[in-house]
Amino acid sequence: MAIEVRIPTILRTYTDGAKSVKGSGATLDELFSDLEARHGGLRDRLVDDAGLRRFVNVYLNDEDVRFIGGLGAPVHDGDTVTVLPAVAGGAG
Amino acid sequence: MLTISAELRDKIVAHARADHPDEACGVIAGPVGTDRPERFIAMLNAERSPTFYRFDSLEQLRVWREMDDRAEEPVVIYHSHTATEAYPSRTDISYASEPGAHYVLVSTRDDDAEEFRSFRIIDGAVTEEEVTITAP
């Protein structure tokens, strides 16, 4: 239970308002599944069938996990995972 | 209502003009809970596109941490449309995920006329709001 996950304002409805929660797992995917057990609905806002949702950025320590294996990225005790809403848009 | 200084408004417009025909984007940070835009932060448009913008993810992490450390939040999130009106597109609405932020849009479609508008975007609903410009 020693990976800290920082949650953005928009998703704190799933964490009873907490700015960060703790979880465990060997990969990001396992970590998100572990969080889902206590914070139902959260995983669905982070992940879809194709992998990480494009509306969120997920960082492992200082790295964007999209560059280091996505959901398969290995995580370890003491790591910090940060979730931020992607800021994007445009005339389209 | 968005209250913003003429100086900050001019910085947004200048950034939008400089990056035209690509879309420009950025943030104005302010102390948490004050609704006061104070610190101008131009962001890279990682897409470098005339029809799309996306904050570079690593730059965003750095800037968001900096705001956290300074007890700030993104009071304004701005971007430009370069060929269409300054009104949130469907893409803008689908990505909008800061219910506390003022979403400022600037259009650079006309060289002479200024379009500077501000919106709240909450759960997919767009509400335009009045913009009050204060002395620099």
Structure description:
The complex is a heterodimer of chains A (92) and B (136). Chain A has 92 residues and is of the alpha+beta class. Chain A has 2 helices and 8 strands, in the order E-E-H-H-E-E-E-E-E-E. In chain A, the strands form 2 sheets. A 5-stranded mixed sheet of chain A has the order 2-1-7-5-6, covered by helices on one side. Chain B is of the alpha/beta class. Helices cover 24% and strands 38% of the residues of chain B. Chain B contains 3 helices and 9 strands, in the order E-H-E-E-E-H-E-H-E-E-E-E. Chain B has helices spanning 6-19, 57-69, 90-95, and strands spanning 2-5, 25-31, 39-43, 53-54, 72-81, 102-107, 115-122, 125-129, 131-134. In chain B, the strands form 2 sheets. A 6-stranded mixed sheet of chain B has the order 3-2-5-6-7-8. In chain B, strand 6 (102-107) and strand 7 form a beta hairpin. Chain B is globular, with a radius of gyration of 14 Å. Strand 8 of chain A pairs antiparallel with strand 4 (53-54) of chain B, so a sheet runs across the interface.
Strand content of chain B: 35-45%
Taking strands numbered 1, 2, ... along the chain, how are they ordered across the largest sheet of chain A? Answer: 2-1-7-5-6
The N- to C-terminal Cα distance of chain B equals 18 Å
| Count of DSSP H/I helices of chain A | 2
Low-confidence stretches of chain A: none
Share of residues in helices of chain A: 10-25%
Kindly name the structural category of chain A: alpha+beta
In short:
The complex is a heterodimer of chains A (92) and B (136). By secondary structure, chain A is of the alpha+beta class. Helix content of chain A is 17%, strand content 29%.
SSE arrangement:
The complex is a heterodimer of chains A (92) and B (136).
Chain A lengths: L2 E4 L13 E4 L4 H11 L3 H5 E2 L2 E2 L3 E5 L2 E2 L15 E6 L2 E2 L3
Parallel strand pairs in A: 1-7
Antiparallel strand pairs in A: 1-2, 3-4, 5-6, 5-7
Chain B lengths: L1 E4 H14 L5 E7 L7 E5 L9 E2 L2 H13 L2 E10 L8 H6 L6 E6 L7 E8 L2 E5 L1 E4 L2
Parallel strand pairs in B: 1-9, 5-6
Antiparallel strand pairs in B: 2-3, 2-5, 6-7, 7-8
